[in-house]
Amino acid sequence: MSAPAVPIPAQQTMRGRAKQGVDHTAGLVEAWLRAHTLLVYAFLYVPIIVVVVYSFNGTNQRVMHWEGFSLRWYEFVAQNNEVQRYLWNSVVVGLGTAIISTTVGTMAALGLQRVPRFIRMPFDALTYVSVIVPELVIALATLVFFASTIGRDGILTNATGITLGFGYHTIIGALSLFNISLTLLLVRARLSGMDRTHVEASYDLYATPIRTFWQITLPQLLPAIVAGFLLSFTFAFDDYLITTFVNGQGTSTLPLYVFGQIKRGVNPSTNVIATLMLLVTLTLLIGGQWLLGRYARRSGGRAGLGQGGVAEIVAEGGT
Amino acid sequence: MAAAAPAAEVRPRAATAPGPSRLVTALLVLPAGLWYLFLLVLPIAIVLLFSVGNRGETGGYAGGFTLDNYQGAFRNSGPFVTSLYLAIAGTLLCLLIGLPLAYFIATRGGRRKTLFIILLVVPFWTSFLIRTYAWLILLGRDGLAGVGVDLTGNDAFRLLGTDAAVLLGLTYGYLPLMVFPLYVTLERMDRTLVEASKDLGAGRWATFRQVTLPIALPGLITGSILVFIPMMGEYVVPQILGYGQTFTIGSALVLRFLEFRDWPAGSAMAVGLIFIMFVTITFYLWFTNRGRRGREQSVV
Q1: What do you get for the CA distance between the two ends of chain B, in Å?
Q2: What distance in Å separates the CA atoms of residue B115 and residue A225, rounded to the nearest whole number?
Q3: Nearest-angstrom CA–CA distance, B179 and B104
Q4: How many Cβ atoms from other residues are within 10 Å of residue B218's Cβ?
Q5: Is residue B204 in some structural domain?
Q6: Measured between alpha carbons, how far apart are the two ends of chain A, in Å?
Q7: ipTM of this predicted complex?
């Protein structure tokens, strides 16, 4: 019982000496690091909070002139058919992109495990290029491609006599490129960390490949697939640049509407729309986090998620 | 369960894991392959082709072979210089702000590390356009600029429409992308190295410069590439916070493609942007390979 009493004072003197002896600036540096961190988070959040707060502004004209709490601009947006049409387009584009990207990306991640090297190498290269290339390059390249194939006077249009033109399909197609690669990378990271013994056990018990996939592989991949779906949806829902290049008649999305307002001069309803867009992405983030947390608990930690959930996947996926 | 185990042992091991057939594998990879072919490889090939072509009479592309577009892009290199200078300055700012932050989270975060990271992901997750717009009203006449000018009578607070506002927007938008890789490398760092350095009498600054910084270098380079490349091609920030007066490659390209419909001239500029990106990534690959070789040698 008295044994632990001996090393403790020794340790204390050691630590005390180190603190006093060499480093007088330690306290100062600690304080600076703390203050810096606090300031950066304030820098990140203050602008967002200002937009949300001023969306409840009862002003007539000037966006940043506080004239008391009011929901009048929310009512204005709720009754605005134009805004609702743009919102609907954004939802269609978001869902379409998310469904295609998660399906195609997950399939590719599964298939690539068994593909010969001479196919996998260029495939990997294209995956990284599509993630890293500036969005603007994808936007203008796909515009030129669609215009000269399925646009007016395009090669395919002239050959078949059918004008596909621009619309949801061109937006979703162009936005899916980046998001397929993103899902592919997320699912593949999960696959490489996956416990193969369950799959082998399943085969040992005479399960077919399809049954093994549904019962063993898919549940383990689900967190990455869900993260891929949510990321793809928000990416497409919020996208401005690609959408502005390849949209068609009547398929403009909410970000295009907001950008137009910014260029023509904002009015107080812009803050409301911005707040609603923030709300959509935040709801998805929190919802995904909650879903994955519940899933991890139910499968007894087998899902292998840290507490970070979606956020962790995003942070690690970004590197 | 236990009864099934001996039965499984009878079958040879290799045969127990048949996996999907080659046809299934091909079908799994095919859709993504088609996407890459039709929406990445072919479009970029077309941009390369158009960049040496002539402009049609009503815009678009009219075939032929000419290097005029590249000459034009060289003569008109202003947007390139602007973008390059903004992207380099923005990357340095992200580094200056991001490194202490990542260091704090990785070494002082404790049990709240995850919370700190989630708080970085949330703004990164939300709309880039909305976050840029937030600065527009924050810096505007009724926001900080108004207050600053009223208090001091100094017009330096009118940032909107200047390069400084664009730089602020770029840094704000891409900062998390710099912090993530920095955090990952610093988090994996062996903290005993820092202790050892201090025990050997090195001061705080010397320890940081000679131990922490070299360890963080891969994350630092990755983060810099991750923010530099999108900053080069940025369009939204210079348009909104720079009022379009800070004329970047992004603004020039959108003008060529969407307003003038001068595809060949635009394509030549786009090839220039792709070239800068290519050089950056080549440097990155060279650097990471060099690092790996270095580590292997030091192990031997």
Answers
A1: 49
A2: 23
A3: 11
A4: 18
A5: yes
A6: 49
A7: 0.85
Domain that holds residue A258: 80-284
Neighbour tally for B267: CB within 10 Å: 29
Check whether A310 has a pLDDT greater than 60.
no
Q: What is the pLDDT of residues B128-170, one digit of tens each?
A: 999 999 999 888 877 777 777 777 776 666 788 889 999 999 9
Selected for mutation to probe chain A from B28, B248, B282 (highest A CB count within 10 Å) is B28
Q: Please count the structural domains in chain B.
A: 1
Amino acid at A31: A
* Angle, vertex CA B279, rays to CA B273 and CA B284, nearest 5: 125
Question: Taking all residues of chain A, what is their mean pLDDT, rounded to a whole number?
Answer: 83
Tokens representing A284? 């998805």
Q: What angle do CA A303, A306, A312 make, to 5 degrees?
A: 105
Tens of pLDDT, residue by residue over B187-205, are 888 888 888 888 888 888 8
Residues paired with B55 in a beta bridge = B61
Domain containing B246 equals 80-289
Interface test with A, best of B86, B95, B125 (most A CBs within 10 A): B125
For residues B51 and B161, what is the distance between their CA atoms, to the nearest angstrom?
32
Distance from CA of B297 to the nearest CA of A (A): 25
Contact A142 B43 (CB under 8 A): yes
Number of domains in chain A: 1
- Does residue A52 lie in a domain region? no
Indicate the residue of B40, B122, B266 with minimum beta-carbon distance to A129.
Answer: B40
Distance CA A182, CA A231 (A): 9
Q: Which two tokens stand for residue B95?
A: 């580094």
